[in-house]
């Protein structure tokens, strides 16, 4: 286990990201898509927080809202103690060095006409991290080696690399400016299973070898998220419904949605699968344009009561950092 | 159990500018009656092309089936004209297919009723009214609420999961003997995936249909398949009853796949062992074992020999490897 300090790197408070729906010539706002609705969570220095949920639950929007790639509608995001939502664009630009992103699509996220070396080195120039050409070259070569790429491949262009290698280029670029936070948005979903393990192991090794490197790891695959994360936040319809450390989430899930999600993931072992029960959810995820009243999960919940239709449950602590948003939890 | 489908030494090639791609290179497998068979492999291993070849759905050019036999109900399907009446009477009727993309495999300008009824009118000789009645029944059976009304909707009015339910209804509509499902739930969310796979399992039980489940997800085959085939670079490298293969994998590639996937029920500190390197280029396949450059169990013989054929390593268990992994581990 890596040492876990409890210094808070990121403190998200009541974050809301709404997308307006407009209609007519005057583009009057008629409704909001509540992609992220009232999310509060903390990320500690040096840990990996997994964000998991199904498509449309708001996990990607939350990741982008945190670094202001999408401007949040309301709330606060304290990064290293500073509320970054109040910063000017110039101040924000200087801070960007400390936070970076890596993306899902290793084909679409790299400029096809730029060399791999310049993709990795560009942030160094933008943030004035290097003083001379020699230093630049040295730093780029170092980054290549660090992610397991041969430094002789610096001048090649992205299409000459395989999917796994491109994802390594993405990681090298994310690491270029020594960030303290990397938002990894589905970094392995587009890769083949035998290659996924290479990238997962690389991300883990880099974190172990870099003091204070923190990940927010966004993915829909719960097995992968559990493997890489120290703590996991489960999202449903724009809200965090449960957050706790990875082992507790698996051993003692308290939210009915978390339990259904866990039971739906097949395990690659026919002997284990024989004995597992599945919780099959009815219906489909409601539209975030028009979320149901009360608990957003109640129309599909197999334990819902009348009360669930009326009260929006808030995340509450049920002991040792385990938070659940369900009125029945802890009763 | 009687054999329903027997594929022998199937070979499919694609002519490209860079050369001839050996997409399927001598694949032999069978499906028994009332059985769920899993075909596992990574992208580009030929698992989908194999299934398309069985139904002669390979676009030509660039694709060519250059050899092999596909025995089904006493006839070799490859002897039939690609678009002749014999082949058409099998496709969608006796052998049905479910594709990965529920979005692109339904026709956007026809209603669900049009698409469901067409097969039944063609293959079963139903009139319009009967076909419509049966279509509504099928939609109810696959869990589409309010089927009577939704039957006149267009595909875009359904969600991804609902569209895949329509595909399942369509596959079942002509009482097929065999359903081939090619990554049927890969594009869907995990809770929807679970619901649909359980539904498919129930329905093939009820209809006495066999199912070929093509997937890259080892968990899905572990749960649903009775027997599995593992494919690598256009060939089958291991075959056997699911439990036997998972408990005693005998090909290094199968071992590698199992060790490289994180399992939900495993402690977090279990280290993943990735398979180093990349799959081979299917245009320039080496004469030796295709997995050799990535194999951590290789012996001297591997580099000197022609690639190994599938040989029996246990009860109904076959592997294409010179190394006896059982002995090596112990």
Explain the layout of strands and helices.
The complex is a heterodimer of chains A (331) and B (330).
Chain A: E1 8-23, E2 28-44, E3 48-52, H1 59-66, E4 74-79, E5 82-83, H2 89-95, E6 99-102, H3 116-126, H4 133-146, H5 163-175, E7 181-185, H6 193-209, E8 214-219, H7 222-228, E9 231-236, E10 239-245, H8 246-251, H9 256-264, H10 270-275, E11 316-317, E12 323-324
Parallel strand pairs in A: 3-8, 3-9, 6-7, 7-8
Antiparallel strand pairs in A: 1-2, 1-4, 4-5, 9-10, 10-12, 11-12
Helix pairs in contact in A: 3-4, 3-5, 5-6
Chain B: E1 3-16, E2 19-32, E3 36-40, H1 47-54, E4 63-72, E5 75-76, H2 85-90, E6 95-98, H3 112-123, H4 128-141, H5 147-150, H6 160-172, E7 178-182, H7 190-207, E8 210-215, H8 218-224, E9 227-232, E10 235-241, H9 242-247, H10 252-260, H11 300-304, E11 311-314, E12 317-319, H12 325-329
Parallel strand pairs in B: 3-8, 3-9, 6-7, 7-8
Antiparallel strand pairs in B: 1-2, 1-4, 4-5, 9-10, 10-12, 11-12
Helix pairs in contact in B: 3-4, 4-6, 6-7
* Count of DSSP strands of chain B: 12
Distance between the termini of chain A: 33 Å
Q: What oligomeric state do the depicted chains represent?
A: heterodimer
Largest sheet of chain B: 8 strands, mixed
* Radius of gyration of chain B, CA atoms, in whole angstroms: 21 Å
Gap between N and C termini of chain B = 35 Å
Q: Helices and strands of chain A, in N-to-C order?
A: EEEHEEHEHHHEHEHEEHHHEE
Rg result of chain A: 21 Å
> Could you name the CATH class of the largest domain in chain B?
Alpha Beta
Largest Cβ-defined interface: A-B, 43 and 43 residues
What is the mean predicted local confidence, pLDDT of chain A?
91
Number of strands of chain A: 12
**Helix share bin of chain A:** 25-40%
Structural class of chain A: alpha/beta
Largest sheet of chain A: 8 strands, mixed
